[in-house]
Write a structure and sequence with these properties.
heterodimer, A: about 120 residues, mainly beta, 7-stranded mixed β-sheet, 4-stranded antiparallel β-sheet, B: about 110 residues, 6-stranded mixed β-sheet, about 0% helix, globular
Chain lengths: ~120, ~110
């Protein structure tokens, strides 16, 4: 059974870069029919898509965040990562990683989420 | 302001049927892109309920169903149960700008 687990710092200072990793288990990160996404949910608010990446390196980013996003895949570690630069208080949220069988498409499997707070 | 519009809240008594609407535009649902629906219980990650507008993943009860017409979509829940009380989100793809997965603002379902 496919499982995803986010890891990273719970606290980030303003202007710094957030780095999160999602570890994939129970399935292959190199599957041609899997795309790997990042989403977030600010406290008390709705869901926002950040970006999606395929193991081949093909990536798709939210236009509103594109200038701040870097995503990558490490097939040897079965991990994919998100770097989000120039963090502000508005980036405080629970960050989720998830799998899409296709892009665009639904997110079928989700990680449990990683809470990130931006504060000095 | 979400690209997809959902009612903030809906409610129903146990056993009743409720529907949650998701209204988009010609650049997303109206362009033919599918709609997906998620259920989020408090403090947990979203769970996929409906994908491809009308399909249920394995394990999702057939009390949950989805439909799409024009620039809108709906999630219907029949035989309402107390454990259905949750937040529900719709998702689609918007082809404007460079293209983006987009979500509705979410609907809080209260079981009376």
């Amino acid at each position: 059974q496919l499982q995803l687990q986010e890891s990273g710092p719970g606290l980030v200072k303003p202007s710094e870069t957030l780095s999160l990793i999602c570890t994939v288990s129970g399935g292959s990160i190199s599957s041609s029919t899997s795309y790997w996404g990042w989403l977030r949910q600010p406290p008390g608010k709705g869901l926002e898509w950040i970006g999606t990446i395929h193991y081949s390196g093909m990536s798709f980013y939210n236009p509103s965040l594109k200038s701040r996003i870097t995503m990558s895949v490490d097939t040897s570690e079965s991990q994919f990562s998100l770097n989000l630069s120039s963090m502000t208080a508005a980036d405080t949220a629970v960050y989720y990683c998830a799998r899409q069988p296709d892009y665009p498409g639904a997110f079928h499997t989700w990680g449990q989420g990683a809470k990130v707070t931006v504060s000095s | 302001q979400s690209v997809l519009t959902q009612p903030p809240s809906v409610s129903g008594a146990p056993g009743q049927r409720v529907t949650i609407s998701c209204t988009g535009s010609r650049s997303n649902i109206g362009a033919g892109y599918d709609v997906d629906w998620y259920q989020q219980l408090p403090g947990t990650a979203p769970k996929l309920l409906i994908y491809g507008s009308t399909n249920r993943p394995s394990g999702v009860p057939d009390r949950f169903s989805g439909s799409k017409s024009g620039t809108s979509a709906s999630l219907a829940i029949t035989g309402l149960q107390a454990q259905d009380e949750a937040d529900y989100y719709c998702q689609s793809f918007d082809s404007s700008l460079s293209g983006s997965e987009v979500f509705g603002g979410g609907t809080k379902l209260t079981v009376l």
